Amino acid sequence: MVRTLRSLGVKRLVLDWREGQDQKDRATIRDAIGGNPEPPFEHTHLRSATEPMLWAPDAVAWAWGRGGEWRRQIEDLGLIDSVTVVE
Fold it and tell me: Where are the chain's structural domains?
């Protein structure tokens, strides 16, 4: 995702705060940018309760994962271009 966001010219990435996950997220971003000391964009973790812009992707992801009519409604809105399953 970091490479894709970088290629799109994203300036800021806000990730949902998860206890114990934030360090892993930072390490993943660091690994993705390799030896480049400049971050590809600003990235920060915020609690979804304090950042309303995190609510929309949560709702879309939930509906997609729920499947059935929920997924069809999300597909009809054209909100999802592609889905990558990460194991």
Answer: 1-46, 48-87
